[in-house]
Amino acid sequence: MEKRVYINMNLCTSCRSCAAACAMGHQGQGHLKHGTIQDKATVPLHCRHCAEPLCLNVCPQEAIKKDENGTIIRMRNLCIGCKSCIQSCPFGVMLPYSTWHTSPKCDLCADRLGEGKVPRCVATCTSGALVFEELATIEKKFRRTVEGGRYFVRFMPNR
């Protein structure tokens, strides 16, 4: 079963503690991008870990892999920082800069997942806006709508 990070935008306080935790866990290089919605809120934008990821298909170095859990992982030792993956991402969630000659991207904190823990951003979210759950579970709690190719999630109380 594939788990993903979801955001309840009604709870996000734009504190960016998720970004700080991400950077601390990745040797100072954050893998989490933030976006502003109608100049009212700044929210984290996570990699969607697509079923058919375009970033994987365009990488000339085969530096992006999909693991058995459906997590899209960038292999830092193979990445040359060409930014093809950034340009191909239809959701714009990959960071537009490169550090150490690599393009950073969310890996769902694969090191923590192996230990049965949640990603750092979720563990650090003080408001509870970020959750890490299976798609089937989250769809029962949230309603998803697509607006311009982006997912916006609105909380729906259990009925």
Keywords:
single chain, 159 residues, alpha+beta, Alpha-Beta Plaits, 2 domains, two-stranded antiparallel sheet, 6 helices, 8 strands, disordered C terminus
What's the number of extended β-strand segments? 8
Q: Write the CATH fold name of the largest domain.
A: Alpha-Beta Plaits
Order of strands across the main sheet: 1-6
Q: Please report the distance between the alpha carbons of the first and last residues.
A: 25 Å
Unreliable sequence segments: 145-152, 154-159
Describe the protein:
Helix content is 22%, strand content 24%. With 159 residues, it is of the alpha+beta class. The protein has two domains: 1-46 and 108-159, 2-Layer Sandwich (Alpha-Beta Plaits); 48-105, Alpha-Beta Plaits. The strands form four sheets. The chain has a two-stranded antiparallel sheet with strand order 1-6. A two-stranded antiparallel ribbon has the order 2-3. The protein has helices at residues 17-25, 54-58, 84-88, 110-113, 120-124, 135-141, and strands at residues 3-7, 33-37, 41-45, 64-66, 72-74, 130-134, 142-147, 150-155. A hairpin with a 3-residue loop joins strand 2 and strand 3 (41-45).
